[in-house]
Amino acid sequence: MFLPGDRCSWAASLNKMERLKPFIIPGFCLRCQGCCRFAEQETVWTPHLLEDEQIRLAPHTKKIELRANPAQGNFVCQFLNQKDNRCKIHGIHPFECQLYPFLINRQGKKVYLSVDLRCLYMKENTDLARYKDYCEYLNTFFNSPEVKKNLKANPQLVQSYVHVLDIFEIML
Ligand code: SF4
Predict the structure, then answer these.
(1) Pocket of ligand 1, beta carbon within 6 A
(2) DSSP result, the chain
(3) What pTM was estimated for this model as a whole?
(4) I want to staple 36 with a disulfide (CB 3.0 to 4.6 A). Which of 7, 80, 88, 148 is the partner?
């Protein structure tokens, strides 16, 4: 955890974590019904929240709250507008939502940056030069001392996922 005197630098570095460049082209996700919906209420796939996001969005939990959606037999994020498929808090949506379909993935004692290949966009776009460039960008981002420090202070962001592709190790 951080000391009170670290508050400013901690907040500044959190802000840095919240400004990830997107990989998926604008508009693609609005046509997809995959994200922000979950088969189970308790699942590792629910976005986990950084400490400041918990204060802003979900004071009583470390994860996004899901609501039952009986019409489709699943659960949806409390911030999803099902009518237009938009995030009601887009622009201040959680860091994990910005990162997806990339994930911070613990495998035993190691932590990887991985990608969920069930994402329809990733299924068709992992052979692009742009994908390689983006992975390099994430590698630089996640292996910076500041971001590693933040991840250590927010272990809820490091979960174990199955059926994902590991891209590079994050040396925590
Ligand atoms: S916060 Fe927004 S982007 Fe994240 S799961 Fe909810 S609706 Fe989707």
Answers:
(1) 35-36, 47, 64, 77, 79-80, 87, 89, 93-94, 97
(2) ---GGGHHHHHHHHHHHT-PPP-SPTTTGGG-S-TTEESSSS-TTSPB--HHHHHHH-TT-SB--EEEETTTTEEEETTEETTTTEETTTTS--HHHHHTTEEEEEETTEEEEEE-TTSHHHHHHTTSHHHHHHHHHHHHHHTSHHHHHHHHH-GGG-B--SS-EEEEEE--
(3) 0.88
(4) 80
